[in-house]
Hints:
homotetramer, 6-stranded antiparallel sheet, 6 strands, 25% helix, 43% strand
Amino acid sequence: MSFVPKDPDFDARVRASFARQTAMTSLGIEIAELGAGAIVLRMGYAPAYTQQHGFIHAGIIATALDSACGYAAFSLMPDDAAVLTVEFKTNLIAPAAGDVFLFRARVVKPGRTISVCDAKAFAVQAGREKLIATMTGTLMAVFGREAITH
Amino acid sequence: MSFVPKDPDFDARVRASFARQTAMTSLGIEIAELGAGAIVLRMGYAPAYTQQHGFIHAGIIATALDSACGYAAFSLMPDDAAVLTVEFKTNLIAPAAGDVFLFRARVVKPGRTISVCDAKAFAVQAGREKLIATMTGTLMAVFGREAITH
Amino acid sequence: MSFVPKDPDFDARVRASFARQTAMTSLGIEIAELGAGAIVLRMGYAPAYTQQHGFIHAGIIATALDSACGYAAFSLMPDDAAVLTVEFKTNLIAPAAGDVFLFRARVVKPGRTISVCDAKAFAVQAGREKLIATMTGTLMAVFGREAITH
Amino acid sequence: MSFVPKDPDFDARVRASFARQTAMTSLGIEIAELGAGAIVLRMGYAPAYTQQHGFIHAGIIATALDSACGYAAFSLMPDDAAVLTVEFKTNLIAPAAGDVFLFRARVVKPGRTISVCDAKAFAVQAGREKLIATMTGTLMAVFGREAITH
């Protein structure tokens, strides 16, 4: 499915908002690809963010997937909207073992208020991608004062 | 509901495993309270882990909630089990604005293989607790070789 | 937590809407208790709605839990709102074996647009209640034309 | 992704188990297509199973999606396994308005114990398919006595 963005300058708007997420910088997560309604984030293996067996912590994987869902949805919103995560659900499918991790999100249903996104996380090891987690996220567009207080 | 732990030394076992999660140290998350089937984690506000509006990133909140669910479940498992997160789902209810955050998890259903936990995140500001997120998590006990490869 | 309903006549409004859900009549689900932000539904064992082992189908349990969440949220909405389910997530904790099933839902966070509810399903057998499923649901209040087209 | 079934007779095994779900017969849900790790269910519009606005109840949509996920997973299990739903999560994307509904599920990750499936529900109206709901489901294979008591 391809989408027509309401804001032709969505690319700059998404990147500017992403750059304000200090969590992304701290975790070493960056934008690898960006389109209207779709995004790919990238993170290198980071020993500082593991669980007890040395794999990347499920919550950190979810953090990247949530940002991916949020910015996929945000790319299709009008330029005066802010985006909030209403909820997300993630299944951990395989240990997050790899040199690099990719997080691919796309909008399943864009909406005036509510958007739904799907995302998948992949571990890359020796050039091979392996699915490690899935997410479905529900995002909300908020406007005006509400966008500031959230 | 109160539970009888299979491992009388669950406290030491949980704390040792938690200490191996480098993600907890990096994010400044620590154990505030620990019982059989219940745990409270604590995190101070950390400017390095925010989203675009300066609140703690939803994924970081989920990271703490996931560890809380995992260790609540782990506390009731036998001493040769490892714990894996099968999936979790989190609703973001209010912005993560506060000086301190508390994450309270408890086991809803302990199981030989599958356990289910509920958790809630609270922001503490001026001494008042406010509910900011909920999680339901499904955890799995794994044994032997499987515990190592995950 | 107790709530002050925006519509003092919420009881009649909830019951009238519930009566229009033909699914509830067909499944034999009725309102056992109703308050502001909380509801209990009741269903007898129905051999016509089982899965392959003779227990009530997980989806039928979810149907009752979804209506319970929806009407708990609806009870706190203004009298010109319609309620839509945005999403729900349910954990099946024990087989739905029993003579009677109770579905208890309460609002966790009421909102102008988005409300979050928690619900639990219990099987009653020989007078003993057993937890069989949990749900977290996200509900949306819609107004005007949007309420009709949905 | 295509899968090699452990049981070459999975087709007969899935259909026999599906036929024992009285809920499917009562709701008018049948198997439209079946493969290894994938299934399509079909349901006609049924006025007896609506919510308050005359659309099929979200829980009934979830019932079909849950059976679809369950049998997609079951098709890949060995012939002595029983399948249980651990949990599912569904997003309602558009009203369930249509003459016919299709429920397409496929296995995302087959596992010895835990399998994960994705499913989508479509409303068909005037020959056009419209996405109305998504589900992610977690299923468990159980063996022996446990399979009977569940």
